[in-house]
Amino acid sequence: MNIIDFLRVLRANRLVILGCAALGLVAGVVYSLLQPTLYTATSTGFVTVQGEATISGTETAQTRAQSYIPLINSRTVREKIAEGGLDTAGAHLRAAVVPGSNLITVSAESEDPEQAAALANSALVATAETANGLDPTSNVQVTAMEDALAPTSPTSPDYVRNMLYGLGAGLLLGLVIAFLRRILDVNVRTTTDAQVASGAGLLGAIPQDATLKAERDAPRGEPSPRAAEAVRQLRTNLRFAAVDDPPRTIAFTSANPGEGKSTVIGSLAVAVAASGQPVILIDADLRRPRQALQFGVDGRVGLSEVLNGDVALQDVLVPVGDHGLLLLPAGRTPPNPSEQLGSARMRDLLTALAETHMVLVDAPPVLPVTDSTLLSTAVDGTVLVVRHGKARKEHVEVARDMLAGVNARVLGVVLNGTPASGVGSDYYGGGYASKGDDYHAYYQAPRDAESRSAGETTPEAGAGR
């Protein structure tokens, strides 16, 4: 993973990371509120070597001062403090030597500032007495120099420190979650995932758009400018997928149902027809046909009847749209869809249609049934449609292997339903991150201007006549 991938993961999971950071801040505040309020008082003592004012005497005092630090929590010192009427049961005492000097400081913490000062002073005196009593003949002495004063503000809890610790822990947790989601995610979420799982190049990334939403109980609507441009890009890439041997019959399939292959191929067929190329769309999903309803035509008679020899092909081809697109509906569901799609009659039908038209075949999904693998041997190429965030990588890999098992020619993969805008759109979808208003201004505004101009010139022309 390079720095670009790292930043993309951060952007894609920024809500998780920010949420964990906020949770860490709250945890820091709650932890601080649960802690007792403590005051710290500090007294200072001076370690001297009597009769010596040389450098060696100062070094000796510093060395002795370090050796006296453990005495602060000794039983002897605590007993001396208790003799003065102070309770040391819950007292927190500590001693330290000021760096580069022979000063020793004694600190005490308590919930009462007055008691903290009294404990610090008593602890210093008790430590000095204990240290001086260890070797009465020694010329090293500890002398109380500065008494502790009652503190005016608490030293604990430290809200700022605890909040920073909580923030850091929350950010770390957010990063761990973000990268675990990326590493352990089994669904296809990037164009790279789609290409690696399918073993094919990327033909297009269709954005998630309400106008391309596949509803099984409603006809297709007019695609938005953004969606239409993505489909046109797919059309262009498909034409250059095999320059030396351009395919005339192309099947669109997916690993599992519900990945949007019927919507994608229906929109592509309209775009190809709009470019002026003769095209026939065949609904070969005989088990769950979609194209007749998508285009709002009667699909009770179609491909099944043609393959059975019940009707002539010309009698069931339905022109749809404004650009000469021909649709061959699926017809009724036969008892043997796999045998029909893998039959020699189906091959002959595709060959005959490909002489005059580009043929797009809406094939069933690969994993549930064998229809697509049989059909893939009869077409010039197959396109695998993968649904962003829904298709599992292992399912796409199995579909790839099943197609490879029959020597199917996979032209490429289409990542469908990618985020059209917002965080991670360029990472997850391949670049359709602009807002719909931007697409409208770029593609639709010139047409609107032409319409307005035509409307303005018409009255003038009438007046002239």
Summary keywords:
rod-shaped, Bact_polysacc_biosynth/exp, 3 domains, 18 helices, 465 residues, Capsular exopolysaccharide synthesis family protein, eight-stranded mixed sheet, Rossmann fold, Wzc-like_C, alpha/beta, Alpha-Beta Plaits, four-stranded antiparallel sheet, 12 strands, transmembrane, ATP binding
Task: Explain how this protein is built.
This protein is α/β, with parallel strands linked by helices. The protein is 48% helix and 17% strand. The protein has 18 helices and twelve strands. The protein has helices at residues 3-12, 14-34, 55-68, 75-83, 113-134, 159-184, 191-198, 225-239, 261-274, 291-295, 303-308, 313-316, 337-341, 344-354, 371-376, 393-405, 425-429, 436-464, and strands at residues 39-49, 92-97, 103-110, 140-146, 202-207, 249-254, 279-283, 318-320, 325-328, 358-362, 381-387, 410-418. It is rod-shaped, with a radius of gyration of 40 Å.
